[in-house]
């Protein structure tokens, strides 16, 4: 009787150690994922700020260029005479 009790106690300690190790491993993995997530959020925020800055520069540049049209310029044909209808 006494031997079976000792055997159960050793098995319980072994299982509890394995459970503790598994808990530590899972916590380490979660920590790594949280660090990765924080880095990605920071990078995304920086990219958003940079995009706003580029948009502001482009808006200023286009305002300084003045109004332009997308109409094609009419040029003379290769012969030098304007085309008549």
In brief:
This protein is mainly alpha-helical and 85 residues long. It is built from 1 helix and no strands.
Could you characterize what this model shows?
This protein is an all-alpha fold and 85 residues long. Helix content is 75%, strand content 0%. The protein has one helix at residues 2-65.
Provide key terms for this protein.
rod-shaped; single chain; about 80 residues
Give the helix tally: 1
Low-confidence stretches: none
Which bin fits the share of residues in helices?
Answer: over 70%
**Quaternary structure type:** single chain
* Strand segment tally: 0
Characterize the biggest β-sheet: none
Shape estimate: rod-shaped
Q: Give the terminus-to-terminus CA distance.
A: 117 Å
The ordered H/E elements are H
Radius of gyration: 37 Å
Proportion in β-strands: under 5%
Structural class per helix/strand content? mainly alpha
| Overall pLDDT | 82
Please give the structural blueprint:
Blueprint: H1 2-65
């Amino acid at each position: 009787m006494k031997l079976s009790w000792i055997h159960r106690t050793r098995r319980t300690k072994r299982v509890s150690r394995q459970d503790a190790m598994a808990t530590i491993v899972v916590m380490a993995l979660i920590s790594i994922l949280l660090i990765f997530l924080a880095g990605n959020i920071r990078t995304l925020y920086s990219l958003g700020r940079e995009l706003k800055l580029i948009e502001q520069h482009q808006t200023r540049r286009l305002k300084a260029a003045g109004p332009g049209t997308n109409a094609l310029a009419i040029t003379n044909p290769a012969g030098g005479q304007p085309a008549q209808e």
